[in-house]
C-alpha cells in the first residue's frame, strides 16, 4: 500500500465518521455528548488525507524505493478498510436484549442517597437507572404515591418473564451494561424481546437478585403499557 492508497483510506475513514456523526447513526456507538469530538476527528482525518494526496500528486515526497517509484508499505494497512466499510455499508442495531441477558444489572450503591422529589404531574417520566436507584437505595420513599412512566426494551428475565431494560454507557457501546427493572402486577407486558415500550405503573417493594452478578433488581407494578418506536437516544 503506497501513500496515495493510505490517504484514500484515511479520506474514506474520515468521511465515514462524518457521515455517522452528522446523522443519528453515531448514537449506536457513543454517547450524545461526544458528537463534537467525532465531527472534529472526521474533519481532521479528511483534511490530512486531502493534504497527503495533494503533496503526493505534486511529487514532493522522497521516493526511496526499488527504482520504480513505488513505496513498499505494510500490506496490513489494507485492514483499515474493514472499519471503513463497516461504517459506510453496515448500520448495526443498538445493544439490546441479548447483551442485557449476558450482563448483570449496572445498579450500584451511590455515594449520595439523598434523592430529590420527582417533578409534579402523573405519570412522570423517570429513567430506568433513576427509578432503580430510588427503589433500592431510597427504599421507594420518593416514589411512594406517584405514578411513573418508564421507557425501555423488553428482555427475558431469568424466569422467562419479561423485564424492562436499557443499556447504560459511560463512553461508548463497548462499555455498555444494562439496567433492569422487573414487571409486576396483573397487567402483563406481552411484547416480544427487543420491542421498545413505555410502561406506566407504581412502585412496589418487590426486589429480586440478578443471577448474573447478584445485584438487586427492583420491580414496577404495571398499570398500563404501549409499544413505541425506538427512541433516537437508546442508551442512558
Descriptive notes:
With 236 residues, the chain is of the alpha/beta class. It folds into two domains: 3-89, no CATH class; 97-227, Nucleic acid-binding proteins (OB fold (Dihydrolipoamide Acetyltransferase, E2P), Beta Barrel), CATH 2.40.50.140. 28% of the residues lie in helices and 22% in strands. The chain has five helices and six strands. A five-stranded mixed barrel has the order 2-3-4-6-5. α1 (3-21) runs antiparallel to α2 (35-57) and α1 runs parallel beside α3. The radius of gyration is 24 Å and the shape is elongated. The two termini are 42 Å apart. The model has no long low-confidence stretch (mean pLDDT 84). Residues 6-90, 144-235 form the DUF1980 domain. It comes from Actinoplanes digitatis. Pfam families: DUF1980 (PF09323), DUF1980_C (PF21537).
In short:
The protein has helices spanning 3-21, 35-57, 81-89, 97-102, 128-137; strands spanning 124-125, 147-156, 162-168, 177-184, 196-209, 216-227. It has 236 residues and is of the alpha/beta class.
Helical content stands at 25-40%
- What is the distance, rounded to the nearest whole angstrom, between the alpha carbons of the first and last residues? 42 Å
Give the averaged pLDDT, no decimals: 84
Radius of gyration, taken over Cα atoms and rounded to an integer in Å: 24 Å
- Look at the structure and name the CATH superfamily of the largest domain: Nucleic acid-binding proteins
User: Which overall shape is indicated by the principal axes computed on the Cα atoms?
Assistant: elongated
Q: H/E element string?
A: HHHHEHEEEEE
Unreliable residue runs: none
Name of the CATH class of the largest domain: Mainly Beta
Structure classification: alpha/beta
Amino acid at each position: 500500500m503506497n501513500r496515495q492508497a493510505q490517504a484514500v483510506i484515511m479520506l474514506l475513514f474520515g468521511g465515514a465518521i462524518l457521515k455517522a456523526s452528522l446523522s443519528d447513526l453515531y448514537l449506536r456507538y457513543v454517547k450524545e455528548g461526544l458528537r463534537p469530538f467525532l465531527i472534529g476527528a472526521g474533519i481532521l482525518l479528511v483534511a490530512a488525507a486531502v493534504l497527503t494526496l495533494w503533496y503526493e500528486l505534486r511529487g514532493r515526497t522522497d521516493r526511496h524505493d526499488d527504482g520504480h517509484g513505488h513505496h513498499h508499505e505494510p500490506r496490513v494497512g489494507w485492514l483499515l478498510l474493514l472499519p471503513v466499510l463497516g461504517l459506510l455499508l453496515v448500520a448495526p442495531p443498538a445493544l439490546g436484549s441479548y447483551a442485557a441477558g449476558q450482563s448483570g444489572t449496572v445498579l450500584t450503591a451511590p455515594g449520595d442517597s439523598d434523592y430529590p422529589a420527582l417533578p409534579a404531574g402523573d405519570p412522570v417520566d423517570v429513567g430506568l437507572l433513576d427509578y432503580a436507584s430510588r427503589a433500592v437505595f431510597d427504599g421507594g420513599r420518593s416514589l411512594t404515591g406517584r405514578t411513573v412512566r418508564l421507557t425501555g426494551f423488553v428482555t427475558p428475565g431469568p424466569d422467562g418473564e419479561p423485564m424492562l431494560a436499557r443499556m447504560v454507557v459511560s463512553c461508548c457501546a463497548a462499555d455498555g451494561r444494562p439496567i433492569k427493572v422487573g414487571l409486576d402486577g396483573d397487567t402483563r407486558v406481552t411484547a416480544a424481546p427487543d420491542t421498545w415500550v413505555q410502561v406506566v405503573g407504581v412502585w412496589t417493594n418487590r426486589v429480586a437478585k440478578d443471577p448474573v452478578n447478584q445485584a438487586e433488581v427492583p420491580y414496577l407494578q404495571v398499570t398500563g403499557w404501549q409499544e413505541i418506536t425506538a427512541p433516537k437516544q437508546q442508551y442512558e
